[in-house]
Amino acid sequence: MGSETIFHLHGKSSLTPLPQAYRVTPAFRALAALALVALACGARAADGDAWTLLQRGGQVVLMRHALTTPGAGDPPGMRLEDCSTQRNLSDEGRGHARAVGVALREYKVPVDRVLTSPWCRCIETARLVFGEGAQVSRALDNLFGRHDNEVRQVAALRELVGEWRGRGNLFLVSHGSTIVALTGISPATSEMVIVTPREGGSFAVAGRLIAHDR
What we know:
8 strands; six-stranded mixed β-sheet; alpha/beta; Rossmann fold; globular; two-stranded antiparallel sheet; 19% strand; 5 helices
């Protein structure tokens, strides 16, 4: 078969073939397929680098809570002490969190400490991934709709991240709004943003990892 002819609308009722230069040829399809393979290989290589970093320890991992029921923020009248007033994990999100925990164990990632936002969806994510033992930190509070707290909270979070010197990894379960305020990266649900503490209390973003979809 020759190259395909692609039509575009011309006026209201006629179809006109595009010029030869704009037609999709078999050679173009082959190049596109190679590009997709290269991208996939690059993504797998990046994932491999991220797992190696975590296996070595000494990293701080900012993890966004798992998938929730639809919505943004929390319903009016939300109270931290009452999970029924909050937007919580969906069943699919709970499955994602468990899968992250399985992956961390399979890769033998050393976990020294786990801190979580006091929001129920973060506490539940931490429990499903790591088991019991996570501690609540107000530095990980949800910043969505709470921008008056951002400067103070990001300063506290920056100090927490920059001072980590553990042999294993510090995991921080928080919210997308909080993670982006610190790193400039807006993670997907259950995604991990890996940062490496540096001298002087600074840090560098070292990688990103979605472990529940391998």
